[in-house]
Amino acid sequence: MPSTIAFSSQKGGVGKTTSAVNLAMAFAVGGYRVLLIDLDPQGSVRYSFGIKEAAERGTHQLLTDPSVPLRDLRMSADGQGLDYVLSNIDTLKHERELAEKIGDLTSLKRRLDEEAQDYDFVLLDSPPSTGILALNAMTAADYVILPLQCESLAIKSLKRFLHSFRELQMTHNPDLRIAGILMTMYNRRLAVHRKICRQMYETLFDSVFSTIIPQAKEIAEASAIGQSVITYNVNSIGATAYIRLAKEMLDRFGFR
Amino acid sequence: MPSTIAFSSQKGGVGKTTSAVNLAMAFAVGGYRVLLIDLDPQGSVRYSFGIKEAAERGTHQLLTDPSVPLRDLRMSADGQGLDYVLSNIDTLKHERELAEKIGDLTSLKRRLDEEAQDYDFVLLDSPPSTGILALNAMTAADYVILPLQCESLAIKSLKRFLHSFRELQMTHNPDLRIAGILMTMYNRRLAVHRKICRQMYETLFDSVFSTIIPQAKEIAEASAIGQSVITYNVNSIGATAYIRLAKEMLDRFGFR
Ligand SMILES: Nc1ncnc2c1ncn2[C@@H]1O[C@H](COP(=O)(O)OP(=O)(O)OP(=O)(O)O)[C@@H](O)[C@H]1O
Ligand SMILES: Nc1ncnc2c1ncn2[C@@H]1O[C@H](COP(=O)(O)OP(=O)(O)OP(=O)(O)O)[C@@H](O)[C@H]1O
Ligand SMILES: [Mg+2]
Ligand SMILES: [Mg+2]
Fold it and tell me: Residues A136, A41: contact at Cβ < 8 Å?
């Protein structure tokens, strides 16, 4: 029975993809079997692993064509114990078709319940929205990680998102829990970052991860060359932060 | 006959809202009559103007209830010649209802063609997606401004977005033109920013605005206190950059 973790945020550019990719890799190098699924039509997971060609099969079939088994949709990152399903929702027409076909929000959940049992973790990258694909991720998940930048618009957007989260919890997934709010791209030299970060801990206490992901140039460099920061430079501050996050997740939820 | 400009990008957090708000204000202080519409359910425009209470009427009625005229949906920023329609798509239920009601993509265009004639500019902030609300914005627009961060994932996402743009141009709005790609949050001390910025100009030439919006702390500070950077500090680098962008738009497209 895997633990399924969705990376969700309506606010864009807060580090959902970066966190999903790097936590997936941190769990994989720790010896866990991990499946990472890209539910964002942007397809940023593919670029984060430097994959040049577009995936022929992927998320589109996962959600709309049960006759294609998961084992024919996943690819593996060489020798790392990390498999992934890439987003292949390429055109506006595809996106519209998908929205029509997966009317109810349980398409992903049903697939994972039946076919993802041999993984320890399933990580879901979602688009910056509260639309069908983002809600499918939260309906399939056991936990949600909420990446958050220390910027005022991101905090304001979080409030609206938490309303949507509660609504979804009530209507579709009563067992869904917030694993934690993950402060990302934190720059301790900026007064506004220090202030907002302090406010978050003072108001939300331990629903904010004690691990903070710093603004770190190696993280952006790694993503630019198509590697996780752990592969790119395991001793960097960015890699260490994500490895610490993996440990904190294991401790908090007793996954061991 | 106003010129309608959409701020579009599938990538999140690239400065769509910040640019829409600040260009709207730059045009308004230049004496133009401007209407700014928030098509993003996140509702960041409201926070950018420091409006505490949620709007009762706004984008939801604009798109689904023609019996409520535009003049009853807009609010005005005191004395600035800038009106705005705020997003009031508050719950998941609202969002689903909206998607069902506005099946075709011309809901916004029809409203603006009939009721927005007394403005010089209509600016549209859109969500980070290629869903129904983002496509309504592009169907109603004459021009699209594409904010772009100098980061590799944003560049990759732009490629997919441009395919969607072409698809929409062909099926819904043949007259739609790209006003330009706007480099945002540019930090000249970062080698990766300098490199990507140079590449953009070398490959796309004058479809990239010559005005570059720098990473500037006054821009983030202004948005944190709910003001445009022009109101916050008109002599700041951030304010000057958006005023220069307004001038460049006026020159490029002969709006005068
Ligand atoms: N800790 C960090 N330090 C430096 N750069 C970072 C960090 N985290 C993410 N980035 C960069 O910031 C940008 C935004 O991150 P990312 O794309 O992961 O966010 P996202 O929430 O997935 O965006 P979207 O809403 O578009 O899906 C990327 O270019 C990424 O490389
Ligand atoms: N030039 C800039 N300098 C510094 N900070 C900036 C700049 N432009 C935007 N920001 C900040 O960066 C964050 C992202 O900007 P913004 O919210 O405008 O992007 P967006 O594309 O509208 O995001 P979304 O995809 O969530 O709608 C905000 O917190 C904003 O205050
Ligand atoms: Mg992403
Ligand atoms: Mg925005």
Answer: no
* A229 membership: H or E segment, kind and range: helix A229-232
Sheet holding B3-7: strands in order across? Answer: B75-77, B82-85, B34-38, B121-125, B3-7, B143-149, B177-184
Q: CB distance A13–B10 less than 8 Å?
A: no
Q: Mean pLDDT of all residues in chain B? A: 94
CA nearest B196 in A: which residue?
A224
Interface test with B, best of A151, A153, A195 (most B CBs within 10 A): A153
Which residue intervals of A71-122 are DSSP H helices? 92-101, 107-115
- Provide the 8-state DSSP code for B207: G
Helix (H) or strand (E) holding B148: strand B143-149
B202 Cβ contact list (under 8 Å, min separation 6): none
Q: Report which residue type is found at A7.
A: F
Query: How many CB atoms neighbour CB A89 within 10 A?
Result: 23
**Residue of B91, B99, B153 with shortest CB distance to A223:** B153
Ligand 1 in contact with A193 (CB < 6 A)? no
CA–CA dist B57, B75 (Å, integer): 10
Output the CA angle A182-A185-A191, nearest 5 degrees.
Answer: 105
Q: pLDDT tens-digit profile of A116-147?
A: 999 999 999 999 999 999 999 999 999 999 99
Q: How far apart are CA A37 and CA A6, in angstroms?
A: 10
Q: What is the mean pLDDT of chain A?
A: 94
What is the Cα–Cα distance from A59 to A39, expressed in whole angstroms? 7
Give pLDDT, residue A256. Answer: 60
- CB-based burial label for A13 (10 Å; 0-12, 13-18, 19+): buried
Please report which residue ranges of chain B form alpha helices under DSSP H.
16-29, 44-48, 59-64, 92-101, 107-115, 132-140, 152-171, 191-204, 217-225, 229-232, 237-253
Look up residue A202 and give its two tokens.
Answer: 């003072």
Total beta-carbon pairs less than 8 A apart between chain A and chain B:
117
Tell me, in angstroms, the distance from the centre of ligand 3 to residue A146's CA.
Answer: 12
**CB A145 near ligand 1, within 6 Å:** no
* CA–CA separation, A178 and A191 (whole Å): 28
